[in-house]
Design goal:
Radius of gyration: 21 Å
Shape: elongated
Number of domains: 2
CATH class of the largest domain: Alpha Beta
CATH topology of the largest domain: Rossmann fold
Largest sheet: 5 strands, parallel
Structural class: alpha/beta
Number of helices: 6
Length: 174
């Protein structure tokens, strides 16, 4: 077989492989979108950090990220320690960490999720690759946290808790 024919065959094979790969990716995206994807897909376990004081939410996160590594803290100092010593793929932050914070008119920045947002904002080298989502029902407190993080050049989003499942599904399909 002449050299030109071999090059043509290799080129055609590359196009076919690329087309098949694109088709398979498209089919997988459709399956994910319609909730028909295999629940045991080949996603490697991810490491999640959760700052949360509500046990029901902690249980929800544990169910949602079953099979992944989930570290939970409801205290600012413990949260700082975990964030300094471990590496996370995603960080979920609540604002109000104590019952007295719910509906409070005064801010208590040192004992809320805001303290962790400020901590991460002041440490640009820490958890740089992690996705940060603030999921508090306290919209004002959550937006202050997001603004603090974004002001430091971090990508952070405010997702109210009741919309979190849809957002997580887009990031880490099950």
């Amino acid at each position: 077989m002449p050299a030109e024919s071999i090059q043509t065959c290799i080129l055609i094979e590359g196009w076919v492989n690329n087309a098949l790969s694109n088709i398979m990716n498209f089919i997988q995206r459709l399956l994910n979108r319609f909730g028909l994807a295999n629940a045991h897909a080949d996603r490697h376990p991810i490491r999640i950090f959760l700052l949360e004081d509500d046990e029901r939410r902690c249980e929800w996160f544990a169910r949602r990220f079953k099979g992944d590594e989930l570290d939970v803290s409801c205290e600012v100092e413990q949260a700082k320690e975990l964030l300094e010593t471990r590496t996370y793929d995603s960080i979920f932050l609540d604002h109000d960490l104590m019952p007295e914070h719910y509906g409070a008119t005064e801010s208590d920045d040192e004992r809320t999720g805001y303290a962790i947002a400020a901590f991460l904002a002041s440490r640009p080298d820490l958890q740089r690759a992690a996705t940060i989502m603030v999921h508090s029902f306290n919209a004002d407190g959550a937006m202050r946290m997001v603004e603090e993080l974004r002001g430091a050049g971090r990508h952070a989003e405010y997702i109210p808790f009741h919309f979190l499942e849809d957002r997580i599904r887009n990031f880490w399909p099950r």
